[in-house]
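Chain A, query sequence.
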Amino acid sequence: MTFKDILVHVDAGPRTKTRLAAAVGLARQHDAHLTAVGIIEMPNAEYFYGSVMPLAGLAPAQVVDRIKERAVAEMGPVETSFRELLQREGLQGEWRLIEGDPPTILAVNARYADLTIVGQTDPELPARGASHDAIITTTLMSSGRPVLAIPFAGEFPQIGERILVAWNAGREATRAVNDALPLLKKAKAVTILAINPRQGATGHGERVSADIALHLARHGVRAEAAHTVAEGIADGETLLSFASDVGADLIVAGGYGHSRARELVFGGVTRTLLAEMTVPVFLSH
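Chain A, predicted structure.
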C-alpha cells in the first residue's frame, strides 16, 4: 500500500504555499502524482438579493462574470507557482480550477486520490466563502478517503518522521491506522497512545495497545505502545500535550462524527484537533 495520488486544496490565501510545500514533500517521498484543486465559489441567491450586494447596479450574469474573472486572476500566480514546483521537483501532476461549492467539490475530487491535503481555518483572517473547517469536515466525512490537515500557523518542512497515533481501539482509529500505513512505514519513530484505556474484549485487551503494535510490526512498523490516565483533562488536550512531549510532527487519529439535522457533530477529540492542532493531523473516517 502506498500513496500514488495526492490531492491538495489551494486558494489565493497566504497558507497555500505551506500546503503546497507539504504536498510536494509527500509526493516526492512516495513518488506520487500531485493534483492541485482550486475552487471558484459561485454566489447564492442571498448574494444577489441581500440588503448589501457588492457590484451593485450590475445584472446577475455580469456579477457572475466579474467573480469568475477576479477568481481566475487571483489564482493565476498560484497556478504558476504550482507548475514551477512540479518542474523543479521532477513530479507528475495537474492543475484543476473548478466552479462550485468548495466542500462538495473537494470531497468529490478526493474520492479519486489516496490522500487529500487541506488547511485549518485561521480565525483571525476575514471569512471569504466556505471555511477551511467546512472543507475539512465535508471531505473527511463524505469522500471515503483520509485527509491531512495543515495548521493555520507554522511551517512543517518534515511531516511523518515522528508520528503519534491516537488509539482507542475503535473503528475510526483502526481505519486511520490502516490508511496511514504508507506514512507509518517510513517514519523514524511511531508512538501509539491510549488515553484512559478501557479493558475487556471490546477495548484494549490485557496489554494496552499490544495488539495494534503487533499488527503494525508485521507491516514493518516499529511502534512504541504508551498509555496515560488523565482524569479531569479532555482527551484531545491530553493528546496534543503528549504530541509536544514526544516531539511528534504528525498526529494520526480517527475522525468521529455524524450528521444531525443537517449539522455535523464531531466527537470531542476530533473537535479539539480541528480547533487547536499545532502539528499536521492525519484524519480518517
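The longest helix spans residues 60-89. The two ends are 18 Å apart (CA to CA).
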